[in-house]
Amino acid sequence: MKMNNTLPHFTFSVQGTTVHYELYNDKPGAQPVFVLIHGFLSSTFCYRHLIPLLAQHGTVLALDLPPFGKSDKSILFTYSYRNLASIIVELVEHLQLSDVILVGHSMGGQISLYANKLRPDLVQKTVLLCSSGYLSRAALPLIASSYMPFFHLYVRNWLVRRGVRDNLMNVVHDSALIDEEMMRGYAEPFYDEKIFHALTRMIRDREGDLPSSELQQITTPTLLLWGEADKVVPVSVGKRLHEDLPNSRFIVYENAGHLLPEEKPQHVYEHIMEFAMM
Hints:
This protein has about 280 residues and is of the alpha/beta class. It contains 12 helices and 9 strands. Keywords: Hydrolase.
């Protein structure tokens, strides 16, 4: 495993791929330790407002899950949720962190739950921000189609058809939040054409979300934060997760959509800190 860094940006080589991550306030013994996990088609960029708030009180580790952000976009990597969760575990162990608080947004929430299943001893608490849940694996015809030559072009066209602004408007409640900085930040990773090949591989590798029977075995204290106007993962999913996770608390924000780290960073920060100190 190799590591290169220019503070606070680092790379971590694991399972034949290179993972980009950022580490803040990593003083020995600094607690709590927050591990920030982004969602689908996102990156550490989505946490740019939340990181400085949390870093006032403890260590913050944020990573780009492959093939997103600045991490590798290999077609040889296995993009299953279990494998992505194992990368988080390996990075946490390599950095000799313990009792971490996982903070997962959207798909990152589901991967956080997988990490809980893999290594509950490393996870003190979990925060789910509009977490995905109860999604099945891709249909077999779609998986079969992904082996066709040039299928990555279909993936590319599907993603760029509406453009960055329209895609962002689907995930925020107040479109006034969308500015040039936000559009550049979310568009930048897609300038690398390799991501569309990797996403094609992800269609094949992604297993379904954890079923109720497995969620009910996760006893880690969990905080669920949701946007009332979330059109991507509706509040009903959050309520169902709350029912299945035996040690959970559920909070809904008015006038908020799916992109809570962008829309309500101060509120999210306050609730995370309150939860961390409980």
